[in-house]
Amino acid sequence: MDLRTANTAINVAIETANGLGVKFCIAVMDSGVNLVAFNRMDGGRVGTIDVAMKKAKTSALFALESGVLGTMTLPGKPVYGLEHSNGGLITFPGGVPIKNGSGEFIGSIGVSGGTVEDDLVVAKAA
Q: Which of 17, 43, 60, 68 is the most buried (most CB within 10 A)?
Protein backbone atom coordinates (compact mmCIF):
# COMPACT_ATOMS: atom_id res chain seq x y z
CA MET A 1 0.00 0.00 0.00
CA ASP A 2 1.46 3.30 -1.04
CA LEU A 3 0.15 6.78 -0.37
CA ARG A 4 -1.17 7.20 -3.91
CA THR A 5 -3.28 4.04 -3.65
CA ALA A 6 -4.51 5.00 -0.18
CA ASN A 7 -5.50 8.49 -1.31
CA THR A 8 -7.28 7.07 -4.36
CA ALA A 9 -9.31 4.81 -2.07
CA ILE A 10 -10.17 7.76 0.17
CA ASN A 11 -11.21 9.91 -2.80
CA VAL A 12 -13.52 7.19 -4.14
CA ALA A 13 -14.96 6.74 -0.65
CA ILE A 14 -15.61 10.49 -0.37
CA GLU A 15 -17.36 10.57 -3.76
CA THR A 16 -19.59 7.69 -2.65
CA ALA A 17 -20.24 9.36 0.71
CA ASN A 18 -21.23 12.61 -1.01
CA GLY A 19 -23.79 10.64 -3.00
CA LEU A 20 -25.27 9.34 0.24
CA GLY A 21 -25.26 12.78 1.86
CA VAL A 22 -23.46 11.50 4.97
CA LYS A 23 -20.18 12.66 6.54
CA PHE A 24 -17.67 9.88 7.24
CA CYS A 25 -14.25 9.23 8.68
CA ILE A 26 -12.11 7.07 6.42
CA ALA A 27 -8.89 5.28 7.40
CA VAL A 28 -6.56 3.30 5.15
CA MET A 29 -3.92 0.95 6.56
CA ASP A 30 -1.25 -1.16 4.92
CA SER A 31 -0.93 -4.92 5.39
CA GLY A 32 1.33 -4.32 8.40
CA VAL A 33 -1.52 -2.45 10.14
CA ASN A 34 0.15 0.95 9.75
CA LEU A 35 -2.00 4.00 9.03
CA VAL A 36 -1.25 5.29 5.53
CA ALA A 37 -4.00 7.88 5.04
CA PHE A 38 -6.96 9.30 6.95
CA ASN A 39 -9.77 11.75 6.21
CA ARG A 40 -12.53 13.18 8.37
CA MET A 41 -15.03 14.81 6.07
CA ASP A 42 -16.11 18.32 7.04
CA GLY A 43 -18.87 17.82 9.57
CA GLY A 44 -17.86 14.23 10.34
CA ARG A 45 -18.41 13.31 13.97
CA VAL A 46 -15.28 13.16 16.09
CA GLY A 47 -16.41 9.91 17.73
CA THR A 48 -16.19 8.12 14.38
CA ILE A 49 -12.43 8.72 14.05
CA ASP A 50 -11.51 5.87 16.39
CA VAL A 51 -14.20 3.59 14.98
CA ALA A 52 -12.99 4.02 11.38
CA MET A 53 -9.39 3.37 12.44
CA LYS A 54 -10.36 0.26 14.42
CA LYS A 55 -12.43 -1.09 11.53
CA ALA A 56 -9.42 -0.69 9.23
CA LYS A 57 -7.15 -2.23 11.87
CA THR A 58 -9.46 -5.23 12.32
CA SER A 59 -9.63 -5.83 8.59
CA ALA A 60 -5.86 -5.43 8.17
CA LEU A 61 -5.04 -7.81 11.02
CA PHE A 62 -7.18 -10.64 9.66
CA ALA A 63 -7.43 -9.77 5.93
CA LEU A 64 -11.21 -10.08 6.29
CA GLU A 65 -14.17 -7.73 6.35
CA SER A 66 -14.68 -6.57 9.92
CA GLY A 67 -18.35 -7.56 9.78
CA VAL A 68 -17.48 -11.18 8.93
CA LEU A 69 -15.81 -11.44 12.32
CA GLY A 70 -18.96 -10.16 14.02
CA THR A 71 -20.82 -13.42 13.56
CA MET A 72 -17.83 -15.35 14.89
CA THR A 73 -17.40 -13.25 18.07
CA LEU A 74 -20.85 -13.71 19.56
CA PRO A 75 -21.20 -15.60 22.87
CA GLY A 76 -20.75 -19.31 22.28
CA LYS A 77 -19.04 -18.77 18.91
CA PRO A 78 -15.45 -19.80 18.08
CA VAL A 79 -13.69 -16.48 18.73
CA TYR A 80 -15.96 -14.93 21.36
CA GLY A 81 -14.20 -11.94 22.91
CA LEU A 82 -11.80 -11.38 19.99
CA GLU A 83 -12.75 -7.71 19.86
CA HIS A 84 -10.95 -7.24 23.19
CA SER A 85 -7.62 -8.33 21.71
CA ASN A 86 -5.01 -6.26 19.88
CA GLY A 87 -5.84 -3.10 21.77
CA GLY A 88 -9.49 -3.20 20.72
CA LEU A 89 -11.14 -4.27 17.49
CA ILE A 90 -14.45 -3.53 15.77
CA THR A 91 -16.39 -6.57 14.57
CA PHE A 92 -19.29 -4.93 12.75
CA PRO A 93 -19.35 -3.84 9.08
CA GLY A 94 -17.24 -1.04 7.62
CA GLY A 95 -13.73 -2.51 7.50
CA VAL A 96 -12.78 -4.03 4.13
CA PRO A 97 -9.55 -5.56 2.78
CA ILE A 98 -7.91 -3.88 -0.20
CA LYS A 99 -6.20 -6.01 -2.85
CA ASN A 100 -3.95 -4.98 -5.71
CA GLY A 101 -4.47 -5.84 -9.38
CA SER A 102 -2.89 -9.26 -8.81
CA GLY A 103 -5.35 -10.06 -6.03
CA GLU A 104 -2.74 -9.72 -3.26
CA PHE A 105 -3.86 -8.26 0.07
CA ILE A 106 -2.15 -4.87 0.48
CA GLY A 107 -4.14 -3.28 3.29
CA SER A 108 -7.60 -2.21 4.35
CA ILE A 109 -10.06 0.63 4.58
CA GLY A 110 -12.24 1.46 7.55
CA VAL A 111 -15.27 3.74 7.30
CA SER A 112 -17.51 5.13 10.03
CA GLY A 113 -20.12 7.86 10.24
CA GLY A 114 -23.34 6.44 8.85
CA THR A 115 -25.30 3.29 9.47
CA VAL A 116 -23.15 0.17 9.37
CA GLU A 117 -24.81 -0.60 6.05
CA ASP A 118 -23.75 2.79 4.63
CA ASP A 119 -20.28 2.40 6.13
CA LEU A 120 -19.91 -0.89 4.27
CA VAL A 121 -21.19 0.57 0.98
CA VAL A 122 -18.61 3.39 1.17
CA ALA A 123 -15.79 1.03 2.15
CA LYS A 124 -16.56 -1.44 -0.64
CA ALA A 125 -16.78 1.36 -3.22
CA ALA A 126 -13.18 2.28 -2.50
A: 60
Gap between the Cα atoms of 123 and 126, Å rounded: 5
- CA dihedral sign of residues 109, 62, 47, 112: positive
Report pLDDT digits (tens) over 88-108: 999 999 999 999 999 999 999
Q: What is the DSSP string of 11-62?
A: HHHHHHHHHHT---EEEEEETTS-EEEEEE-TT--TTHHHHHHHHHHHHHHH
Residue 97, SS3? strand
User: What's CA 89's distance to the chain center, in Å?
Assistant: 11
Residue-wise pLDDT for 30-66, tens only, equals 999 999 999 999 999 999 999 999 999 999 999 999 9
